[in-house]
Specification:
Among the domains are: 174-251, no CATH class; 256-521, 3-Layer(aba) Sandwich (Rossmann fold), CATH 3.40.50.300. The chain contains 28 helices and 7 strands. The longest helix has 21 residues, at 421-441. It is 62% helix and 6% strand.
């Protein structure tokens, strides 16, 4: 009985996000009950919450040693492998769980999320639908799973399905902020459209009630700001953007200094590298790295290229950063000797590590795009270790680029600098210096694609892009919204699913009086 009381207290600690205290309590209990699968599973969860995934693997594996069919521990083990990008291992465990209990909702949902991560959205849909059906049969309202399903349909541009699911969500919970945010993303608000105006009023009423938590206030403020911008009510829109960004800053820790330190360290470590002397091992797969500032057009470029019959668009990936951190960073600093050591090995170790992540994708095409914007940080590593890779650097009017950043809620902690006007400008300026370094260092190896020129002359710029990528001209690239094979999973989803349009040029102009802190600081 005493153990049951302590387990309930651990539940409460975890629910209240007191993970360190929960960990300490569990460590004491495990000294008394070292073989208790239930406690070991909970201990693994505390490691997950504290972002110590390697330790989490150890505890979940121990839990399964003492109780082979502890499905909760199996599910958590699979989730940890997924977080570590060990997709093949995670998939194997999810399948094993569903063989034991084909109605286990958590595994259905998590396996679907894995499918989404590897661009197999059509395989995720039946998993999510089954999880929703089972939840409903058990009188559980699976709002988050329904929202995930709506997000899948948004990624593949089936907006009719998105609206249908959101209607069902609102019948269950009218004030569900994430659903309102998703609806705002797929809606073009107009004074002539009573449905869209009605949605704005609904959001305003929810926002004024005062019973939303901080995160939902942020979500709803960004959604309302977008809707009011559509109506050209820029002052009111900016007021909401200011509220959203200020509230977000209170919940996070800025990573601007860390990012700037990395930029400066990269310049220092690569300034004396002679790239002409480097001869790497050519691989059968060609990688096109599409990078640049976030919101500079990287998603649009990938959509254009992935419409080409010979190209697989892999989307925004974490693989390259993981490999570089593992192989070249020590105590958060670049280990230059490791660069030299691995450079002298002609085994192609780094590119082989990178391509291993794609085994689960079953890619037939010989050309793969990786459109992670922040891969601009790793241009030096790409040049050394990916000899037949192509680097596309997206460039956009800095004012438009930075204002677009301020208008979006980025979930990744790597973007924690993007909720403050001055930090956005400072990040951009340091980025600009780093790109100038690379354009001087390896001028012929980087193709700078100007977003504004692409908007003005899409066919001409697409032809030049394909030529640089050594790809034949394909009419499908001009009609990328019809032929692109890559689902969009970033905040660019609504824009990049549309044909090229000019509204994004000079989009900073209506806000420039409000954004003087940012605009005056930009280079």
């Amino acid at each position: 009985m005493d153990l049951e009381i302590k387990i309930r207290s651990i539940h409460n600690l975890i629910q209240n996000k007191k993970f360190v205290l929960a960990k300490e309590t569990l460590d004491k209990l495990l000294k008394k009950f070292p073989n208790n699968s239930y406690l070991l599973n909970f201990r693994g969860l505390t490691c997950q919450y504290l972002d110590d995934n390697e330790s989490a693997l150890k505890f979940f594996t121990l839990a399964l040693k003492y109780e082979e069919k502890n499905i909760a521990a199996m599910n958590n083990l699979a989730n940890t492998h997924k977080r570590l990008l060990n997709y093949l291992e995670a998939e194997k465990i999810y399948k094993k769980i569903l063989d034991i209990d084909h109605n286990y909702v958590h595994a259905l949902n998590n396996y679907a999320n894995l499918k989404i991560e590897i661009n197999k959205h059509n395989e995720a849909i039946p998993l999510l639908e089954k999880a929703i059906l089972i939840s409903n049969q058990r009188n559980i309202k699976p709002l988050d799973i329904m929202l995930s399903l709506a997000g899948v349909y948004q990624s593949i541009n089936n907006l009719e399905k998105v609206r249908k699911i959101l209607d069902e969500v609102f019948l269950i919970k009218k004030d569900f902020a994430p659903a309102h945010k998703l609806l705002s993303e797929i809606t073009k608000y107009s004074s002539d459209d009573m449905n869209s105006l009605s949605h704005i009023e609904d959001m305003k009423k929810i926002n004024s009630k005062g019973n939303l938590n901080d995160q939902n206030k942020i979500i709803l403020s960004f959604a309302l700001a977008k809707s009011l911008e559509d109506l050209k009510q820029y002052d009111e829109s900016f007021d909401l953007l200011k509220i959203a960004n200020n509230n977000k800053k209170k919940l996070i820790n800025s990573n601007l200094k860390d990012e700037i330190n990395i930029f400066q360290s990269l310049t220092k470590n690569f300034e004396n590298v002679d790239f002409k002397e480097i001869k790497g091992e050519i691989n059968s797969k060609k990688i096109i790295f599409i990078c640049g500032m976030p919101r500079s057009g990287t998603t649009l470029i990938e959509q254009i290229l992935s419409a080409h019959p010979e190209v697989y668009g892999a989307g925004e990936l974490l693989y390259l950063e993981k490999i570089i951190n593992k192989n070249f960073f020590r105590s958060n600093k670049i280990d230059k000797q490791k660069i030299i050591d691995l450079q002298n090995l002609s085994s192609g170790k780094i590119i082989k590590e990178y391509l291993q992540f794609f085994e689960i994708y079953n890619i037939k095409e010989n050309t793969i795009t990786d459109k992670t914007p922040q891969n601009f940080k790793w241009i030096g590593f790409i040049k050394i270790f990916f000899p037949n890779a192509i680097i596309i650097l997206c460039k956009r009017n800095p004012k438009d680029n930075c204002v677009s950043l301020f208008k979006n809620d980025f979930p990744s902690s790597t973007m924690n600098w993007s909720f403050d006007q001055e930090e956005i400008a400072e990040y951009y300026n340091e980025y600009h210096k780093l790109m100038n370094f690379w354009k001087v260092k390896i001028p012929k190896d980087i193709y700078e694609l100007n977003y504004e020129r692409l908007i003005e002359d899409d066919k001409g710029e697409i032809d030049k892009l394909l030529e640089f990528c050594n790809l034949d001209i394909s009419e499908k690239c001009y009609n990328f919204t019809k032929f692109s094979k890559t689902p969009i999973k970033t905040v660019s989803v609504s824009q990049a699913n549309k044909p090229i349009y000019k509204d994004s040029i000079n989009s900073f102009d209506p806000y420039q009086n409000h954004l003087q802190k940012m605009l005056k600081k930009l280079i």
